[in-house]
Write a structure and sequence with these properties.
The chain is an alpha/beta fold and 128 residues long. It is 22% helix and 27% strand. It has two helices and six strands; from the N terminus they run αββββαββ. It is globular, with a radius of gyration of 16 Å.
Length: 128
């Protein structure tokens, strides 16, 4: 699609969208995890351009947390805890992600194994 008024993601002709494609964001996370010595896999591949990104952080015996990428009120990247403030079982995390995929079939899920609790998000976690 040619950028311009007919493109809702890019209403100004000649300017590129500020949104980074989800596929590139996923590749960046995979690289970041590899550098940190963490195992990460794409558990669900969604829309290359604009699928929502969920991170399932599996701390093995410590349970799982699921984070959903969002934008805060100021336009900065942030995260929401999809499964609540406390870790949940892997089964509960997977059930949550399955429910979300019914609402948004284009979503991505990146699963990160982090038994030592080393993983750090790249933005703030919003408390809603």
């Amino acid at each position: 699609m040619t950028p311009g008024p007919s493109d809702p993601d890019n209403p100004v002709p000649g300017h590129t969208s500020d949104r980074l494609k989800t596929e590139l964001r996923v590749q960046a996370w995979l690289r970041r995890c590899a550098v940190a010595g963490l195992m990460a896999t794409v558990a669900r591949k969604g829309d290359v351009e604009a699928g929502a990104l969920f991170l399932k952080v599996n701390r093995l015996a410590g349970g799982c947390e699921v984070f959903s990428g969002v934008t805060d009120a100021g336009g900065a990247a942030a995260w929401l805890r999809g499964t609540g403030p406390a870790p949940v079982t892997e089964k509960d995390a997977d059930l949550y992600l399955a429910r979300q995929s019914k609402y948004d079939p284009d979503l991505w899920v990146l699963e990160i194994e982090d038994p030592k609790g080393q993983f750090v998000l790249d933005g703030k976690i919003l408390d809603i």
